[in-house]
Design a protein that fits this description.
Elements (H helix, E strand, L loop, with lengths): L1 E3 L3 H11 L5 H19 L5 E8 L2 E8 L3 E7 L6 H5 L6 E2 L1 E6 L6 E7 L8 E5 L2 E2 L3 H12 L4 E5 L2 E2 L1 H10 L4 E4 L1 E2 L2 E2 L5 E2 L5 H6 L3
Parallel strand pairs: 1-12, 4-5, 4-6, 4-8, 8-10, 9-11, 10-12, 11-13
Antiparallel strand pairs: 2-3, 6-7, 14-15
Length: 206
């Protein structure tokens, strides 16, 4: 269920995100571009339905998406991935879940949630640039399942083996999409080599 997206443009843009000298504007723009590139792969298996349309030249038997798409960015950093995907899927609906990781216990804490009403019938993509311990992502997925979501994908930029294993153990039915699988977590739960705190770099905070 782990999909590491190997493409030269994805690798190039991820390198820009990793560089410590990349400023806030460049980080924001690159994250959006990277999410858009990843969208081609994460949507590869979306179901289609047959339809008949009329073109200026005549009738055409073709296909269109058979299922709605819902994006659920994990606040804050997941917001940086939304526009890159909605540029390709303008009809996608967007919910939000606010979670943060307690830096002492490393346990996820929820402070906000609001979702569209079509979770049960949609392809639901949970967006979070970093898959570190996996605690927040796993908790977000569990929360969405409680709200009726059935077809879920976890879309992250960089992941650590510990986070991947956490999702595999807790949610073996959820596909994981990464631009890169990094080496490890450090002693305070950050991905190494990673790209730092994605939320702080995205919004210029510390």
């Amino acid at each position: 269920m782990l999909n590491i997206l190997n493409h030269p443009l994805i690798t190039h843009k991820l390198t820009r995100l990793r560089k410590k000298e990349t400023n806030t504007r460049e980080f924001r723009e690159t994250l959006e571009e990277l999410a858009g590139l990843m969208a081609f792969e994460i949507t590869r298996d979306l179901p289609l339905r047959d339809i008949t349309i009329e073109t200026p030249m005549g009738m055409c038997n073709t296909q269109e998406l058979a299922r709605e798409v819902v994006l659920i960015p994990v606040l804050r950093a997941g917001l940086g991935m939304v526009n890159g995907i909605t540029n390709l899927i303008p009809s996608a609906r967007v919910g939000h879940i606010g979670m943060f990781r307690d830096h002492q216990t490393l346990e996820p804490q929820t402070y906000y949630s609001k979702f569209p009403d079509n979770l049960a019938s949609a392809t639901v993509m949970v967006l979070d640039p970093m898959l570190a311990t996996g605690g927040s992502a796993s908790a977000a997925i569990s929360f969405l399942k409680e709200k009726g979501a059935k077809n879920l994908k976890l879309v992250c930029v960089v992941g650590a083996p510990e986070g991947v294993e956490k999702i595999r153990r807790d949610h073996p039915d959820v596909r994981i999409y990464l631009a890169a699988l990094d080496e490890k977590l450090n002693e305070i739960g950050y991905i190494v080599p990673g790209l730092g705190d994605a939320g702080d770099r995205l919004f210029g905070t510390s």
